Amino acid sequence: MSNPKQQEQINIELDETIAEGIYSNLAIINHSSSEFVLDFVNIMPGTPKAKVKSRIVLTPQHAKRLLRAIGENIHRFEAAHGEIKETEQSPIPLNFGPAGQA
Q1: How far apart are CA 4 and CA 7, in angstroms?
Q2: What is the pLDDT of residue 7?
Q3: Per the record, which residues fall in region Disordered (predicted)?
Q4: How far apart are CA 44 and CA 25, in angstroms?
Q5: pTM over 0.85
Q6: Which residues 6+ apart lie within 8 Å of 98 measured at CB?
Q7: pLDDT at position 19, please?
Q8: Which of 5, 20, 71, 81 has the least C-beta neighbours within 10 A?
Q9: Could you give the C-alpha distances from 71 to 27, 64, 65, in angstroms and in order?
Q10: CB atoms < 10 A from the CB of 36, how many?
Q11: CA 54 to CA 56: how far, in whole Å?
Q12: What is the spatial distance between Cα 33 and Cα 59, in angstroms, rounded to a whole number?
């Protein structure tokens, strides 16, 4: 008999292109009643235009789990490396409608 508390293993593949990652210094977050949309942008000073480099669509439940997981990881990071200091940034004019930034 197997232990009911034993978790099944999931094999997750990461191809080379995705493993390189995409740099983002701006996240634009929108939501509807059924999903959260996270657009990741790399905006450079002096450049009048920037493109969305990656878009992630999440269910509200997954968005909340992601928020919790990021918070836990920031807590662990700061415990190991010290407080992450937030720097003052000049406001970036964004005309995307109701949205949050990170």
Answers
A1: 8
A2: 76
A3: 83-102
A4: 9
A5: no
A6: 30
A7: 96
A8: 5
A9: 16, 11, 10
A10: 20
A11: 7
A12: 9
Q: Tokens 């490396």 — which residue? A: 81
Tell me how far apart the alpha carbons of residues 11 and 33 are, in angstroms, rounded to a whole number: 31
- pLDDT value for 92: 58
Transcribe 37-95 into DSSP letters.
Answer: EEEEE---TT-S---EEEEEEE-HHHHHHHHHHHHHHHHHHHHHH-PPPPPP-PPPP--
Strand partners, 26: 41
Structure tokens at 29: 């977050």
What amino acid is encoded at 90 in this protein?
S
CA atoms of 3 and 52, how far apart (whole Å):
45
The residue ranges of the chain whose pLDDT is under 50 are 96-98
